[in-house]
Write a structure and sequence with these properties.
By secondary structure, the protein is an alpha/beta fold. The protein is 47% helix and 13% strand. It folds into three domains: 3-45, no CATH class; 56-238 and 425-435, Response regulator (Rossmann fold, 3-Layer(aba) Sandwich); 241-416, 3-Layer(aba) Sandwich (Rossmann fold). It is built from 21 helices and twelve strands. Residues 43-54 have low confidence and may be disordered.
């Protein structure tokens, strides 16, 4: 099969769409070009194409299922791990997006390990790995996947093994009503926007194939109740030990620029409408005095800003998490503008968590979980309407206050948004679901 034909396989098109949505067209097309080169060189192919036809079956597990069924060994009375008195969670998900992978998959190891529960995870396209972790599990979690032959195969294997299934997601990808009024979607070409709307029922199908659901924010949980009657749990994003350690290290090593530096962590076309919320006020601030800087963390084009302020803008592309935190720690504050629409009302406060980890206060729209994470006037500032320029002027005029807010944000993060916080970041009902 040619490299182009390989690149146009449905799972790769879906991956391209996810990167386009989360990180913007420049990143998506750059990754697609690099992947096409790998395919042309005979690299980068998954087991999907080769194993799905094994033994004449549509599914990679098909031949094994047939043999076990003929030998009357298909159904198990209990998962082997449960029979041995253990509990173990297996996560199969879309792990292509680093921030999502960190907050929804990797950090859960801290929760389950602290309870003596096993934990393994795999990308949905890694068939051998997925099959292996299913055999060790007592519970399966699907993360951010849509209905597909692969997901159906894993769900069928989970039922064969007697594993309850939970579906976890952190954006309303299943919701046509949220997408239809999503301000950022209007920034995309119509075919791409239509693609996201067409994908929504497939995410909902995967959700409703599970026994229970979990969501990252109260807003998302409430919105999902319109689409599914499955039992649902709240599982907040939080700062794990590695985030706290990396944030403290970044703060200690931060090289501070003279003047006042405002960070903007974006850079994707998928967030252009959000940036517009604060752009005018930010530009007025940058033009209002010397030694004022904008640090763009991501891939946002400087051309979106007036020529007069461009000399005061510097950019740094997204790198690994420690380097991202190191860059963020050099700022005096972080801007988190969001349009107030149904999609954004479901969003978590992960960028605010990152900023608090490095003791940087945020100026944020009171939308989604940002309204609950930021203590207005103490750990940051919640900005309504067009108050961005005025808030920046106030902080720049009193840098000691900005620093104090940053320290308070770090203290609040440690007290309320960790695995050991007094108010649990994981619904106790979800823990009981695994322990049953």
């Amino acid at each position: 099969m040619s490299a182009i034909a390989q690149a146009l396989r449905p799972h790769r098109i879906r991956r391209f769409g996810a990167v386009f949505r989360e990180e913007g067209p420049r990143v998506a097309f750059a990754r697609a070009a690099a992947h096409l080169k790998m395919l042309a060189a005979g690299q980068g192919r998954t087991d999907l194409a080769r194993t799905s036809a094994t033994g004449g079956s549509r599914f990679a597990f098909g031949s094994a299922w047939w043999d076990m069924a003929r030998d009357r060994a298909f159904h198990l009375t209990a998962p082997p791990a449960r029979a041995a008195g253990r509990r173990s969670v297996a996560v199969i998900g879309d792990l292509n997006l680093p921030q999502c992978r960190k907050y929804r998959v990797e950090q859960m190891d801290e929760i389950w390990a602290g309870l003596g529960i096993g934990y393994e995870y795999s990308h949905v396209e890694d068939i051998p790995r997925c099959r292996e972790i299913l055999q060790h599990a007592t519970h399966l979690v699907f993360y951010r996947v849509r209905r597909s032959d692969l997901v159906s195969m894993y769900a069928y294997e989970a039922r064969r093994l007697g594993l309850p299934i939970l579906y976890d997601i952190d954006d309303p990808l299943f919701s046509v009503s949220a997408y239809a009024r999503y301000s950022n979607l209007s920034e995309l070409e119509r075919p791409m926007a239509r693609h996201f709307l067409d994908e929504a029922p497939l995410y909902l199908d995967a959700m409703n194939g599970a026994d229970a659901l979990s969501f990252s924010t109260p807003g998302l949980l409430e919105h999902a109740a319109r689409y599914s009657a499955r039992p649902a749990f709240l599982r907040r994003n939080f700062a794990d030990a590695r985030t706290l350690e990396a944030g403290a290290a970044a703060r200690r090593g931060a090289a501070r620029r003279r003047g006042f530096t405002v960070a903007l962590a974006s850079g994707s076309k998928g967030h252009d409408a959000d940036i517009e919320v604060a752009r005018d006020g930010l530009c007025r601030f940058l033009a209002g005095g010397a030694d004022r800087w904008l640090l763009i963390l991501g891939d946002l084009d400087k051309a979106r800003f007036p020529e007069a302020v461009r000399p005061y803008i510097r950019s740094q592309g997204f790198a690994d998490y420690p380097r991202y935190l190191a860059a963020l720690a050099e700022a005096d504050c972080l801007l988190l503008p969001l349009t107030d629409d149904p999609f954004n009302r479901c969003k978590s406060a992960v960028r605010a968590i990152d900023a608090a980890a490095v003791s940087v206060p945020v100026l944020a729209s009171p939308v989604g979980d940002q309204a609950g994470f930021v203590e207005d006037g103490r750990t940051g500032i919640l900005i309504r309407d067009d108050g961005w320029g005025e808030a920046l002027e106030a902080l720049a005029g009193c840098p000691g206050e900005a620093a104090a807010m940053g320290r308070a944000a770090r203290t609040a993060l440690e007290a309320h948004w960790t695995a050991r916080a007094e108010a649990p970041v994981v619904d106790p009902g979800l823990i009981d679901w695994v322990r049953e």
